[in-house]
Amino acid sequence: MDEKPEQIRDYRDLIVWQEAMDIAEEVYRLTRQFPREELFGMTSQLRRCAASIPANIAEGYGRGQRRTFIQFLRIAQGSLKELETHLALSVRVGLLKAVEGNQMNDRCSRLGKRLVQFVRSLGEPK
Question: Is there a contact between 112 and 80 (Cβ–Cβ < 8 Å)?
Fold first, then answer.
């Protein structure tokens, strides 16, 4: 489903922002179960990159220029890839169960595809 510019009054109306917020919220929930010694390690890394995704979408929207918005959407895509990597590592070292990692990976993959479609719908900057 593509974003419809005529329905967008605020960045909070963007499906990509809403899904990114849901993912960030889930990352916070999942990392609550991590060992305390990971608070400044993997917990911090996961939370930082997860929060960065919706934050960059919102910041880019707030800049009010299509070219800049696309740039921030691409930064959000990069943060999403960083999140996927940290999630995979968390599974590999036993901080997350494989099923949790797979579920989050599926959500990240859907958001990634949606971000690509959204950038395309905005058109390449001239």
Answer: yes
